[in-house]
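Many introductory courses stop at the sequence. We go one step further.
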Amino acid sequence: MMKNIALTILIIFTTLVEGQNLERSLLWKISGNGLKEVSYLYGTIHITCDDKLPAKTIKAMTETKQLYLELDMDDPSMQQSMMGGMMMKEGKTLTSLSSAEDFKAVDDFLKKQLGYSAQLLNTIKPFMISAMLYPKLIDCEMKSVEGSLMKLSKEQNEEILGLETVQEQLAVFDAIPYEVQMNELVKTAKNNLENDKIEMDSMLKIYKSEDINAMVTLMIESENEITSKFEGPLLTDRNKRWIPRIIKIASEKSTLFGVGAGHLAGENGVIQLLRKAGYTVEAVF
């Protein structure tokens, strides 16, 4: 279950950048500004039915020497680290964040979907519970682009590393009010995942088209307040924290950076931030 959460919690981060229009591409070449070798930036999606990598991405993987994802997904300590960051702070519980009626709706829903009572999950951040439900949003076995990148990286005997720690990533959900998270979980329970499935279907179609700008528009218009009102902690703050790390890593070794596709576009997206830092970032078709 922890591995599924690790692969799915990131889906919320593929959202909400106010964007300049960029070419339709998920793969971008990073060069210039003193780099001795090129590196690549690749937009991933964390839940999909089709995890086949395009030929251009496989080529970029063969040209680079290591893989950096948002998290070091093959770190054996990751699951333990995730467990430590799943609990709410300050004694908050699901019952304290909801009315008796809403808690019952969530309890009945979770029993049906996960086989767990909400009482057993009472101290877990509501978003973490929502993340457990993401495999239910697609009518197939859940796969991830990260999984395919990791498989290829291992076949090439290359190292897999992470741009941020589990603690850094999960801390985002202490910056988003637990009340907002709970409200979204209640909405999901009451509509029985229907709205979530519609949005996921739209996102998968947009991802397949490689239109990173349309993905932003989709999520800005989302009814989910976590994605539509908390761009700062979800995206911008993380993007800005990544830039010096990406620059240092790329200056030392040719690297493919695989991050959620929503991090790419926009004024505060990784592409524009790297360009502002003096690097040439070009779409690969």
